[in-house]
Amino acid sequence: SDHMENIYGYLMKYTNLVTGWQYRFFVLNNDAGLLEYFVNEQSRHLKPRGTLQLAGAVISPSDEDSHTFTVNAASGEQYKLRATDAKERQHWVSRLQICTQHHTEAIGKNNPPLKSRSFSLASQGSANSPGVQRRPSQNAISFFNVGHHRLPAGKRVPIMQPDHLVDVREMMSQAEGQQRDLIRSIECLPVSGHLTSLDQDLLMLKATSMATMNCLNDCFHILQLQHASQQKGSLPAGTTISWLEPKISLANHFKNGAAQNFPAEINKPASVREEQSIAEPCQLTREPEEINPDEELEDICDDKEDDLGAVEEQRSVILHLLSQLKLGMDLTRVVLPTFILEKRSLLEMYADFMSHPDLFIAITNGTTPEERMIRFVEYYLTSFHEGRKGAIAKKPYNPIIGETFHCSWRMPKSDVAADAGSNFPAHSSSEQVNLSKDVEGQAELDYYTVKFVAEQVSHHPPVSGFYAECVERKMCVNAHVWTKSKFLGMSIGVTMVGEGILSLLEHGEEYTFSLPCAYARSILTVPWVELGGKVNINCAKTGYSASINFHTKPFYGGKLHRVTGEVKQNATNTVVCRVQGEWNSVLEFTYSNGETKYVDLTKLTVTRKRVRPLEKQGPFESRRLWQHVTESLRDGDIDKATEHKRALEEQQRNKERLRAETETPWCTKYFLKDGDGWVYHKPLWKTVSAAQTQQTDAN
């Protein structure tokens, strides 16, 4: 082909976290099907610093940016490369893909041995040798023949009869034993030296062998169901053929060097025994607790998630996890490894979306319906930046059912923007007294208080309810969110199913809104967060609506974290405001009068939330509930954090099982079921309505 040309030039190559990116001179040898690189062009006549066989390789443009791409060889080696621009990346990717396809097809036709990194797992070895040694002369095929038995030549496989399932089970048991021996041989290797237990090829072998055994177990399960249907004539009513849980315990393979055995109950730390002895929620008071904002102190925790060390060290765990996932698989019931967790609960993450209370309170200060809708859109788009902690994608704790989180913000009244031409009347003393007892003591205060409460109202499906209010400004927001996670290959997608309602009681307006999807990208390298999808904001009373698009990065080119939107007057279909920019950087608002406003999210003031000290929190409040997991993560003790997390999860499963056996329904504490949603038990609109009725009766 005319395109089968040798190309060469400088590319940046990612080495490791310490060395980072380095310029190297690359040569694509189409005749040999090799990608070689040298320190520089002058050393091209010397031996290459590295060589990749392209037959069977996968060339993938990265979704991190428009310059990066990866070359994944069939041997398991990977080059992460970066061109100077998108055009140069496309040139290299196209030529590499053409060369790869040509040599892969040649192997399919001629079936020559594939030269690649290869090893032999020795079944025997002295006590002083690792039992695994590298034999460069061996081809890759022999490496994967561990535990493989061939039938004698000319012997045909008989048709499987139902009675033979017992023999199959015995053969599978032997295979599982061989697979465990293989894993043990790899994990007994040293962590440093010529061949280590962290070798990328060996990690991939561990992952694929485990995936193979799990798939075989699933198939065997289906055969058993078919056998049962043949004996009974049909499957029992309600029976479904589904995938089994992994037969091979992940916990026993996650830690290199030895199986990870958790100590018996008597050896567990006192904190874990305390977690397991927490009384059943129904035995605690389920009466809603009124939190006094004066007991809350300004939060001093600042757990930014920028540390990738644990992720790098636990790469084998990620490979094990990926080996058991299928595309589109629901991750709701998958227990993820502890080291990828943030140091906060999902309920607290929802609270962090409220970190700009000045913009929230300023919504009701708009003098017209149009201005209030635009202010709400501005607040909405600025909330996601602070909701994320750091640049690296990590997962907050899954709240257990009955878990709650409380906090508040104090906002000086002078810091809340009011329209230049508006003069909002002060509330009368009678209104202040009748609204609630909270306001009575704040009539002369120079700050507004925004109170927040969240509760995990359901475990399966996982549904959270959260509510925030500013009594002084007669505004509140109520929302419920069901998080649905799916495995998408090299990404994880989280759909936020649910709805929120912002109520501006001074104006009698309600704004309904939804939330975008979130994606954790590049989960095998440096994971990062991307938002995607279309959300709508509507106010039925005023006829104004907003449509906002969170754009995921296209395969080629394009910007990260891009968002666009527009605010319309539905009756006339007139666009009154357009917005564009990045949801974590700079937003540009263009109004119908031609004016433009820029909002730099990185320079917005973040108001720290106020939280009660741990000793004053209830046993099911997020920070107290997860305190031992959080402390262990801060100390870098992943094993101890996993132990505490496991105790909490086991406690939740036991209680759920007990409720199912006794047919005891779960009783929520702060939120009530309302159709398909959940509503706070004491929303501000009820309080204000009661206060107005009381005032009318008094008059």
> Helix count, per DSSP?
16
CATH topology of the domain at 293-418 and 446-688: Porin
Cα distance spanning the termini? 93 Å
Secondary structure: number of strands: 28
Class based on secondary structure composition and strand pairing: alpha+beta
How are the elements arranged and paired?
Layout lengths: L6 E8 L6 E9 L4 E5 L11 E4 L4 E4 L6 E5 L5 E5 L3 H25 L8 E3 L10 E3 L5 H4 L21 H23 L12 H33 L37 H7 L20 E2 L10 H5 L1 H9 L17 E5 H7 L4 H6 L6 H19 L7 E3 L6 E9 L16 H7 L1 H4 L6 E12 L4 E8 L4 E13 L4 E13 L4 E5 L3 E5 L6 E12 L4 E8 L10 E8 L4 E9 L3 E6 L4 E5 L9 E2 L10 H4 L1 H8 L3 H25 L8 E4 L2 E4 L3 H15 L1
Helix pairs in contact: 3-4, 4-7, 5-15, 11-16, 14-15
Could you explain how this protein is built, in words?
Among the domains are: 7-108, Pleckstrin-homology domain (PH domain)/Phosphotyrosine-binding domain (PTB) (PH-domain like, Roll), CATH 2.30.29.30; 293-418 and 446-688, Porin, CATH 2.40.160. It is 29% helix and 26% strand. Strands 13, 14, 15, 16, 17, 18, 19, 20, 21, 22, 23, 24 and 25 form a 13-stranded antiparallel β-sheet that branches. Helix 5 packs parallel to helix 15 (638-662). The longest helix is centred in the first third of the chain and has 33 residues, at 200-232. It is globular and about 95 Å long. The N and C termini lie far apart (93 Å). The model is unreliable at 111-160, 234-285 and 419-443 (pLDDT under 50). Plays a role in regulating ADIPOQ and FABP4 levels in differentiating adipocytes and is also involved in regulation of adipocyte triglyceride storage. Weakly binds 25-hydroxycholesterol. Interacts with OSBPL9 to function as lipid transfer proteins.
